[in-house]
Design goal:
Blueprint lengths: L34 E11 L12 E14 L15 H10 L4 H35 L5
Antiparallel strand pairs: 1-2
Length: about 140
């Protein structure tokens, strides 16, 4: 069995403790990007978007139609807000995309069903939380 003498190195570096002398300020880590790849998609029905108001959900096609690599330094900053379309605007977009009006009505009905289901689930969760708080014993 090998024995190590006191003070003999084990081959591993000892981590400096915060009390081992003056601390050096940590440098902020930053990441810089020089370019971005932009994928453009056609508009289509569905996706994960369900409008909060009435009307059919408007999403993106499954396959992109164009890819473009842009230099970030030379581009203007894009607006951060997502466009919100009214029910009439969404219906007009589907009409322009040659969707049959009956199919658009089905999309609208499905979206209404999803919104109602989400509202019901939200109400159920609020009731459960309220019951849990009411059932909790009084704490001193």
């Amino acid at each position: 069995m090998l024995q190590r003498k006191q003070g003999e190195s084990t081959g591993t570096k000892k981590r400096p403790r915060s009390s081992d002398g003056p601390s050096t300020p940590k440098r902020a880590k930053t990441v810089h990007f020089s370019s971005a790849t932009v994928y453009e998609f056609r508009r289509a029905h569905g996706g994960s978007s369900v409008p909060s108001e009435d009307g059919p959900p408007l999403g993106m096609a499954y396959v992109h139609q164009r890819v473009q690599c842009v230099d970030i330094a030379s581009t203007e900053t894009a607006p951060r807000r997502i466009n919100r379309y009214s029910s009439a605007e969404r219906r007009a977009i589907f009409k322009k995309l040659s969707y049959p009006s009956r199919l658009v009505e089905d999309f609208s009905a499905d979206a209404a069903h999803i919104r109602a289901s989400r509202r019901a689930t939200t109400c159920e969760l609020r009731l459960e939380r309220k019951r849990a708080v009411d059932d909790e014993p009084d704490r001193l």
